[in-house]
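User: Predict structure, ligand succinic acid.
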Amino acid sequence: MAYETIEVEPLSPNIGAEISGVDLSQPLGNQTFSEIHDALMEHQVIFFRDQTMDWEQHKAFGRRFGELHVHPTAPSPEGHPEILTIRGDAKSKQVAGQHWHSDVSCDEEPPMGSILHLHEVPVPGGDTMFASMYAAYDALSDTMKAFLDGKQAWHESEHVHGKRYGHKGGMRDGEENLYPKSLHPIVRTHPVTGRKALFVNCNFTTRIEGLKQNESDAILGMLYRHIETPEFHCRFPWRNNSVAFWDNRCAQHKALWDYYPKTRHGYRVTVQGDRPV
Ligand code: SIN
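Assistant: Predicted complex:
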């Protein structure tokens, strides 16, 4: 892909690229927007350094890519329902995103992308791992691809947001105790690239429709181990004011919590997506 207004440096053969030559706090011209979008489609997760954005600028950048998503359970700063705080510090009992996942896959229309801006990061530590679900799908045998083709799996959230993170109280949709759950294809086709990607994750996916629980556990367990293959990954070492923008339709991520009791702090804006097909 030829880029004219930005520089794009791949981080690994399968996933991830660092972008330079753009200030995300400023409105993007059409050419730069289109090149950033192309880079995201090509690399599945893109990174930017030395960005200073306030919440409004962060949201404005996200809105270039679509409507903003509101998390079903996580609290947000007063007046900014589209802002998700990401924080680990000496008081944390756990941090968000410690298990491989794509964001909020329990929603009927899971987010297309997530844009995380970290203001304060520990040194060293607090890296985020990303895994290409194209590479994971491509590496399966033809027999396993044929087995998974057309199958669906349940993505649930009560065990994550209700139990693990101790959520109590209001839900996004104003209904108490209705944690989202959805049935999605195990292999989805990316709406822009047309490539096939694995779409199950160990955080939210609980059961393959039509299989007995022990059969489903065995297949999902195999897929979760497969997703952990290092050749499908890149690892991003954050610095203060870095930004990561990942495509949840074809990438999973895992936040490393190796920095306790230090502080890691920032905000995420999430872009609405479509129903997986
Ligand atoms: C998340 O959005 O899942 C958290 C990612 C991170 O903190 O690196």
